[in-house]
Write a structure and sequence with these properties.
By secondary structure, this protein is mostly helical. The protein is built from 12 helices and 2 strands, in the order H-E-E-H-H-H-H-H-H-H-H-H-H-H.
Length: 345
């Protein structure tokens, strides 16, 4: 399936290079066979130590997933914890934040906030567990390898297909570039053309080999979407009325404290909130390319704290000032001009 996986042998008994392995049969120290075992073992140990020393001298490192990493090839273990936090942030922030304000109009502002915070805590805990699992099993690269540990080859292939389908839907749902180009150009051309332009751009960026070189996209993308969200949030707060409200005459904004949605509407709204954290399964690959996987918890907590704070700030402010007139995606809530500026960012 193209997913990296590896297997390793482990033993509960540590191996020491200073003593020969036990054969289970006692031999005299004067026994030539015993002396032969000692000489053979010492030769193997010397060869192993020489190989390790040669590898270290050449500036190479061994990784359970990527194998030997040297200065001559791509470095798959070069992502720091700050870049990891930004990449975690970018894999999730663009997916659900634009629909969170409208969700509050369905569930009510109090239940919506409670569920949003609860999902943030649950995904933080699950991410922490992923980090601990990855440290204990360094040969695991993705959830496909977890499937191999559970169900062998069948489990790996099954989970790999499910993971591929899931991430295809998640990434596809998070691509707002065609909507943005339509908004900026006022539908200047066919949407299919904009989709093709987006596909080419994504293909070129996805061809970058390592996450360390791709991290600049995370920084730029995170900064741009936060800027666009702040623009819309500030615009709705200072504007005379929401873009979807009647532009003349009096109007009322209806703020729902506790909603009374149908079961289907409630599940749909909760699903949109859950979608705001849909990038969680990608954490395995991010940890695999960290310089120090032990720092993943630090990156996770930093990412989740910023995400929950931003989600709450944007959702509460935009919904408070727009009420039933809030748009989804939320970037269209402040009128055509602000919509173009926000999507341009």
């Amino acid at each position: 399936m193209g997913f990296l996986s590896s297997t390793k042998k482990s033993t509960d008994e540590p191996i020491s290079l200073s003593s020969p392995p036990s054969t289970g049969t006692k031999k005299s120290l004067n026994d030539p066979a015993y002396k032969g075992d000692v000489r053979a073992y010492e030769a193997d140990a010397s060869e192993l130590e020489a190989a390790v020393a040669g590898t270290m001298a050449a500036g190479a490192d061994a990784d359970a997933v990527f194998g030997e990493i040297s200065e001559d090839g791509p470095n798959y273990r070069a992502v720091g914890w700050k870049s990891t936090a930004v990449l975690l942030f970018k894999t999730q922030i663009g997916l659900g934040v634009l629909s969170v304000p409208s969700v509050l109009g369905v569930l009510g502002i109090v239940p919506g906030i409670i569920i949003l915070v609860l999902l943030g805590v649950m995904t933080t805990w699950s991410g922490w567990m992923v980090g601990r699992f990855k440290i204990r099993h360094p040969d695991v690269y993705s959830v496909a390898d977890v499937g191999y540990m559970i169900g062998g080859r069948f489990g790996r292939e099954f989970i790999a297909i499910a993971y591929w389908l899931y991430m295809t839907c998640v990434v596809g749902s998070g691509l707002l570039s065609s909507i943005a180009l339509n908004a900026i150009s006022t539908h200047g051309t066919c949407t299919a053309v904009f989709v093709a332009v987006s596909a080419v751009a994504v293909f070129l960026l996805a061809s970058i080999q390592t996450l360390e070189k791709l991290s600049f996209v995370g920084w730029v993308g995170s900064a741009s979407i936060v800027a666009s969200l702040l623009i819309v949030t500030i615009a709705v707060a200072i504007s005379d009325r929401p873009a979807a409200a009647p532009q003349t005459g009096p109007y009322d904004i209806d703020i729902i404290i506790f909603g009374k949605p149908s079961f289907a509407s409630a599940m749909g709204a909760i699903g949109q909130l859950l979608f705001a954290w849909a990038g969680t399964p990608a954490m395995f690959g991010l940890i695999a390319e960290m310089r120090r996987p032990q720092d993943f918890t630090k990156a996770l907590l930093a990412c989740q704290a910023v995400m929950v704070s931003l989600y709450l700030a944007v959702a509460i402010v935009v919904y408070y000032y727009c009420g039933q007139y809030v748009a989804s995606p939320a970037l269209g809530s402040a009128g055509p001009m602000i919509k173009k500026i926000a999507y341009g960012m």
